[in-house]
Amino acid sequence: MATAMQSLNESEATVNFTEPRSFGTVLKSDIKETLFPDDPFYGLKNEPPKRRIWKTFQYFIPMLEWLPQYNLKLFRYDFVAGITIASLTIPQGISYAKLAEIPPIIGLYCSFIPPFVYALFGSSKCLAIGNMAATSLMIAAAIKEKNVFPETDPKLYLNLVITAGFLTGVMQLFLGVCRLGLLVNFLSHATSIGFIAGTATIICLQQLKGLLGLKHFTKKTDVFHVIQAVFRNRDEWNWLCALLGGIYLSFLLISRHLGRKKPQLRFISTSAPMVVVVTGCLITYFIDAEKHGIDTVGPLKRGLNPITIQDLTFDSKYISAPIKAAVITGALATSEAIAIGRSFALKRNEETDGNKEIIAFGLMNIIGSFTSCYLTSGIFSKTAVNFNAGCKTLMSDVVMGFCMMLVILFLAPIFSYTPLVSLSAVIAAAMIGLLKFGEFYHLYKIDKFDFFICIVAFFGVTLFSMDTGLFTSFFLALVRGLLYLARPATCKLGNIPNSSIYRDVEQYPNATGVPGVVVVQLGSPIYFANGIYIKERIMRWVRDEQSKSITKQGDVEHVLLDLGGVTTIDTTGISALVEIRRQLLSKGINIGIVNPRVSVLEKMTRAKFVDIVGKESFYLSIEDAIKKCQFSLGQSSPHEGSA
To answer: How far is CA 299 from the centre of its chain?
Structure first.
């Protein structure tokens, strides 16, 4: 008993009941932790004024960090990488522009101005910029919902597509400047995997139009309508298109396989799309392909990007379509590009700044929309090629931009002979590379609900529409997150034998309870959505323990709540704790609070909860609380007894 009293005296006044901080202090701290968790200007505190200004410029314009140390040795690597991705950009740019049903030259424009902007403001050293297949198709689908079609009103259709890119840039810039990039994380990994696989599937199926030389096709994107259109128009099938398409597609897939199996042959896979386009141009030129029913891209004008700032369309009759396209494609493109940049940066032990990236994407799309570009972002296939080609900095994007400038100034008309069948083969091969069903199995093994979300996204896209798949899976992921908040992790703790450590009794079956005491650990914020659940769960543990005590160790007299994992609490949560205390007291049970965090303790103090419970019922550690409870029960510590 003397030992217990001594331990109690040593543990008195260990919980810090200081005066709660002012609202302004708390708000400043919360904003800093929410928006500036990395404290980006920490290193500037002890710098002289001129150095501080220069460092600030470097922070907002990352190119200023690496450009002063740039040299010819680094440029050799970046030059080769830039030319390599430029050769991939030409066929992809034309192909994805056709996917968006806009003039093919727009696809080339997208790889001229935007890479220069990203090179200035981007933080990733190897991210390659261009247009995306999935977002191209989604933008087209969104604009068509307003009954604006490229066949009937090509000028308005193109203006709305470019306006969607502008609005995406505005949204990205706002999120980046306000450091709200965390909102992009609400698009879960499982949703992204299923959506991209589903989109890749329907894009592949839509390429049957070009691979078979069809003149008429459905405007729907789901599998049923696409397959129906293919067989309904089977009298339009062109055997020469099918033959060329089969050869091109086989060549692209085989070259990719060789590049993966033998790294020394990787140049074959990177140059294969360009080979397909060039050979297609030669074939159509020499055999007069149009006489054989093989359609070509059509005229491509020389010249730099025309200024299109005056063409941005904000007509209330149509603006909802670009806004919808901007929100959906912006979230998808931004999250994917950030993930791509981070994954390749990790391979070199480098870091990227998510908010800087979002600002770079925003400026890139805003300036791009002023110069005849639609939505551009970081592209996985081009970034992988850029990385494997040995790029060292974003100068590779600058080299690609200059290469594309030369193409649109001098070489664009050559690609007017490009047959649509070759573009369909390039798109189909690229999309087949995105069908990574091994990731589905990986999700299935780890988390069945994530797998379910992924499957819903995939079949929602392929069987209904891209919007249906994306929003349904996003809703399921959001519901799951809300369930985690409404049903937080709680557990009953027990003492690990021969130690003073207390752990979850389910995870550690050998952990023993303390007679007459129930220790409960709460692992999430306590607020309006989960207060009632927490109260009911605690009372159930007490009831279960009391039912055991009938045949074993006596009644429960103390309940200890370990709040070390509770980051915050609201008024509803405090009311729930008051109700828990009232119900426990009615049963003759005392409540103790263990290790509350400063923000939680401050709110408890302001709400007079500390006065209601009493400061003597607050403890710094579970061990101290157990000793106090055992002293009142006339017991000895379990680890003291074992000693």
So the answer is: 39
Distance between CA atoms of 415 and 229, rounded to whole angstroms? 29
Using CB atoms within 10 A of its CB, is residue 47 exposed (0-12), middle (13-18) or buried (19+)?
Answer: middle
Q: What is the pLDDT of residues 221-266, one digit of tens each?
A: 889 999 999 999 999 999 999 999 999 999 999 998 988 888 887 7
Contacts of residue 454, Cβ cutoff 8 Å, sequence gap at least 6? 190, 191, 193, 194, 440, 443, 473
DSSP string, 357-385: HHHHHHHHHHHHHHTT----EE-HHHHHH
CA distance 628 to 12: 10
562 membership: H or E segment, kind and range: strand 558-562
Query: How many C-beta atoms surround the C-beta of residue 235 within 10 A?
Result: 6
Strands 517-522 and 590-594: what pairing?
Answer: unpaired
Closest CA to 77 of 342, 383, 394, 352: 394
Residue 83, both tokens? 């030319």
Q: How far apart are CA 210 and CA 213, in angstroms?
A: 5
Rg (CA), the chain: 31
Taking only the tens place, the pLDDT of each residue in 85-142 is: 998 899 989 999 998 999 999 999 999 999 999 999 999 999 999 999 889 999 999 9
Torsion, Cα 106 112 115 116, to 10 degrees, reads -140
**Whole-structure pTM value:** 0.81
Residue linked to tokens 């294969």: 272
Long-range contacts from 547-553, C-beta under 8 angstroms, 24+ separation: 549/516, 553/515, 553/516
